[in-house]
Amino acid sequence: MAIDRELVQAAKAWPFQEARDVVKRLGGAEASHAPDKGYVLFETGYGPSGLPHIGTFGEVARTTMVRNAFAAMSDIPTRLIAFSDDMDGLRKVPENVPEQEMLTEHLGKPLTEVPDPFGTHDSFGAHNNARLQAFLDTFGFEYEFRSSTACYRAGEFDATLLKMLANYDAVMQVILPTLGKERQETYSPFLPISPRTGVVLQVPMEKVDPDAGTVVYRDPETNELVETPVTGGACKLQWKADWAMRWDALSVDYEMSGKDLIDSVNLSGRICRILGSKPPAGLTYELFLDENGEKISKSRGNGLTIEDWLTYGPPESLSQFMFAKPKTAKRLFFDVIPKSVDEYLTNVSRYPDQEPEQQLANPAWHIHTGDVPPAGADLTFGVLLNLAGACNSEDPAVLWGFIERYAEGATPENSPMLDRLVGHAIAYYRDFVKPTKQYRAPSEAEHAALTDLVSRFAALPESADAETMQNEVYAVGKEHEFEPLRDWFKALYEVLFGQSQGPRFGSFAALYGRDETNALINRALAGDDLSAG
Description:
Layout (H helix, E strand, L loop, with lengths): L4 H6 L3 H13 L13 E7 L7 H20 L4 E7 L15 H5 L19 H15 L5 E4 H7 L3 H9 L1 H8 L5 H4 L5 E3 L12 E5 L4 E5 L6 E5 L5 E3 L1 H12 L6 E2 L3 H13 L9 E2 L2 E2 L16 H7 L2 H9 L6 E2 L5 H14 L5 H6 L1 H6 L12 H11 L4 H11 L9 H18 L10 H15 L7 H14 L6 H11 L8 H8 L1 H12 L8
Parallel strand pairs: 1-2, 2-3, 9-10, 11-12
Antiparallel strand pairs: 4-8, 5-6, 6-7
């Protein structure tokens, strides 16, 4: 779509701010400022030591948003690499995978040499790489997957590895002051792959020979001296040096990273300059936390999996979550999904009526790269959750019976997003809402107010809309002197839904139907067990 580049240059959304940093790095947005390689390279990194989690996806999603923002302000071509550091040695066995004993036998080996505990791929690294790519593909990301193992073995890094070897002492002077005394004595940026055991060795170098392109180390088990080339996959680099090497070898222009890697980014940047390259621009984002406020870890598996989110919310809602405040630490647990879904739906519904500069600030623009789909029926995820509870059914057809009456002309076929939301709402209600419901009987004052509400609803036309019904709910609360008024709304949800909060009751009543809502209230007034359905 055509974009006013003056508006883009002034846009305040964080992806545009990041894109302007890339433009600054290049010296300008015009084609004449294109790098020698002919394109701007965005990179994301992934360590496949455990199953991919949403934080991994988030880096690709956010980087894609920056890439698209850059494309809106420049005609210089771009590429995005999703790079897997799959030549890393397996340092510990993840807690959330099978075959723990088997994996223990292969500790220290490159992840692409560790057997796949799931039995579906050639290696554990290949399995996790496939999981990541499958998920990224479901989102339609435009990216190129690169494997560290493949790059090392194909010689793609050889020239930079030899440059690193020629600057061995300078690189050591950068890294050694950051290490403890014991690690200083054993550290080397080059990690040989033992031809005898296949293990990635962390051993000191006995000799460094830049002219021959080799290093000599002492086998820690046999005590024999071993000379090995640093090229062709015979060695890999310790990760801070590896990061810098990759920036240089691939000529990376942009890469974001987590707050926990600030020191590593600085060190790798210094090494990158030693190699004669300029470090990439990049955002430092805050970390995701689990339900207990602890950092999410791939090996511990204490965060949501990719599959978890897609069970309970559409992909667009996950992109919404990733867009919001990347520099703020956020809990990443099941209870954030409904809020993210409704925030996405709200942003899409607002988009058509916004001015162009407001559209550029709308997360929906960044999620859909400006091609924002039309909003569907005016139904929130929270309302659908309540509908699932009131219907007490896991059959989407039952919910659609109410939806088709509420949103005339809407069907699962012509409203695919709404149909997906129905399925997600049923699953979320079943697994998270229903098990925690705690119904209570109304107090005397609440009983009187609910009785009044039934009378008021009965006097309305059967087709009364959400706003009309919400006005009656509000009027009852005021007339019966609930103070504060939110106690009235809280009572509605605790008595009728077994929970203390929810979306606007009028929206639910309009969807569920006037008569059906009155029937639900009358059951509560009669003392029926609403948890039984």
